[in-house]
Amino acid sequence: MLVIFLIIVKTNAQEQSLYTLTTSTATYTDLENAISINNGQIWGNNDFNPIQVPFSFKIAEETISTFAFEQDNFTFSSEQSDNKYDLEVSGIVALDKNFAVGGLSHSPVSYKVEGTEGSRILKIEVKNAGSEDELTEKGTNNLFINFQIWIYETSNIIEYRYGNTNITAQDLPLFQEDDAILIAIIDKNDDYDCYLHGNPLTPDFTQLFDGAGTESEIDSYVMSSFPANGTVYRFTPSTTAGTEQFNKTQFSIYPNPVTSMLNISLEKMDVTDYIITDMTGKTIQKGTFKTLENTIEVGDLSSGMYGIKIGNTTQKFLKK
């Protein structure tokens, strides 16, 4: 596989980090000779039986025993703690393309295991899935997505891989009343959640621990568009979770929400350049700080959510 570009996006403003995120591109290939999960059954609001993970694997440092296709996404479960993790890949409410018609499935769900013991990969695929929002709101069934999840033995790496889709920016209003384009790993116990958000080519990566984050903050952690064909998001477990391994730029902002003047307090002057972006990743403002205590005029910004990036750390603020 030819990797076209590689971008490391580091965690922001958290004392711990369980994963690093790598964004790359690679040729998307449908699974061949895979084992069917739905066995020709139409899906949309139904759960399928759990399947044993064929090797030792961990999510967020927790041993996973089974995975299941539930509703429209994949849930990974731990027998030790009875906890579950949702791997939110598509970001839309997906359903079988034949859901409204009946008969046999037109959106197969399957998996296969490749490789030799010690370096196996569990590959899971949803093929040619439609959108419930399109069917409900417009009565049409034209949109489609293809994606895979790859689970790596030994390294505990997780990859989200995206195939062909016809979803464009014009379709985004269909998804706004749900979770918009949500791509994440969600812990059902709220001990650990991570979100990709912003530009799908260079997404920000936010990790939350112990239920951190307000509802409005979490609602803002969405993608500005659907990932293009060939996009790969790789979650690599951190080797020293809970340490300052990334040498993160430490700063605080207030007030948040803000009306006109945003205060920024730096911990030290090792990094002084800043960039303010909107939720599409577009640069709105940039500059350089000369002191530890600083103020930025944001009164001219339109109301909405923005990010301020200093060094390798991004924090979000809401402009009223």
From TrEMBL:
Keywords noted in UniProt: Signal
Domain Secretion system C-terminal sorting residues, every copy: 253-320
Superkingdom of this protein's organism: Bacteria
Stored InterPro entries: Secre_tail (IPR026444)
The name this protein goes by in its record: T9SS type A sorting domain-containing protein
UniProt lineage: Bacteria, Pseudomonadati, Bacteroidota, Flavobacteriia, Flavobacteriales
